[in-house]
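Practice problem 4.
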């Protein structure tokens, strides 16, 4: 068995807030699509102030890739800033949801 097979995959949780032209441009649905492709669980929602907030849980590499997606967003979006805070992994999500309201 090689070292790559014995490494423990680190699970992480990131809370991400995205500002810019990020509502009405399919940001939430594209984030869900990319999260599902990377096997990341959590949720995404619009905030009343025009930003988008999300929580991502999964292996460190996949969560980082999803955060990188948020720095650009879908083609119609204009991302001005992305704030990321790292929290304790909970493992409490079964999938990835778009939250409304």
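Answer key:
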């Amino acid at each position: 068995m090689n070292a790559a097979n014995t490494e423990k995959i680190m699970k992480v949780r990131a809370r991400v807030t995205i500002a810019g032209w990020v509502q009405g441009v399919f940001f939430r649905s594209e984030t869900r699509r990319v999260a599902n492709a990377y096997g990341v669980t959590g949720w995404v929602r619009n905030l009343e102030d025009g930003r988008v907030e999300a929580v991502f849980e999964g292996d460190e590499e996949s969560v980082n890739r999803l955060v990188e997606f948020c720095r650009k967003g879908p083609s119609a979006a204009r991302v001005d800033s992305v704030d990321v805070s790292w929290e304790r992994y909970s493992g409490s999500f079964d999938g990835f949801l778009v939250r409304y309201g």
